[in-house]
From TrEMBL:
Its EC number is 3.6.5.2. Its cofactor is Mg(2+). GO terms for biological process: adenylate cyclase-inhibiting G protein-coupled receptor signaling pathway; exocrine system development; Golgi to plasma membrane protein transport; regulated exocytosis; regulation protein catabolic process at presynapse. This is small monomeric GTPase. The gene is RAB26. GO terms for molecular function: G protein activity; GMP binding; GTP binding; metal ion binding. Keywords: GTP-binding, Hydrolase, Lipoprotein, Magnesium, Metal-binding, Nucleotide-binding, Prenylation, Protein transport, Transport. Gene3D superfamilies: P-loop containing nucleotide triphosphate hydrolases.
Amino acid sequence: MLVGDSGVGKTCLLVRFKDGAFLAGSFISTVGIDFRNKVLTVDGVKVKLQIWDTAGQERFRSVTHAYYRDAHALLLLYDVTNKASFDNIQAWLTEIHEYAQQDVVLMLLGNKVDSAQDRVVKREDGEKLAKEYGVPFMETSAKSGLNVELAFTAIAKELKHRSMKLPNEPKFKLHDYVKKEVRGSSCCRS
Ligand SMILES: Nc1nc2c(ncn2[C@@H]2O[C@H](COP(=O)(O)OP(=O)(O)OP(=O)(O)O)[C@@H](O)[C@H]2O)c(=O)[nH]1
């Protein structure tokens, strides 16, 4: 399930992953909730991801709350060009702790790193926050596609590992896997 403030790029991230395209042009906010399926082959095993795209707008919060408890994984997004979306991450985490399953797979994503000139949230700030909460972290761009496949593949691998519980298979380390991340530009407006 994709969560985070309105406009951080949840729908675009999902469309980039599903269709390999970027939704340029006017911004159409998600109403309530929407979902798309994608089948990935992970280490020779087919994994069907059902990905729920939630509305970031406050007025839909009660609708999205109802979906948290069925989510196996949450991708929590902020927009690196929007400080408020980053400041709201703590509130999102509080909501997640309240409504999601305790063992939900969680990943923090700083999106829109292609907009280097408009960046206001430093990579280190994202990393620091993620470390504080023990959550894997990556920076992404739905526009350029940077790290999008990697983020979803990481989730798929973790979920596959958890569901198959093969005793002889080495434990999948999500925190290590996300280190394959390609670094975007760290340029800042301020
Ligand atoms: N430059 C840039 N723009 C992006 C990126 N991702 C999304 N956008 C733009 O940001 C705006 C919002 O994107 P959405 O994907 O609709 O945002 P959302 O988080 O789904 O918003 P809600 O549905 O309201 O919760 C759109 O104008 C997108 O074109 C990105 O990676 N880079």
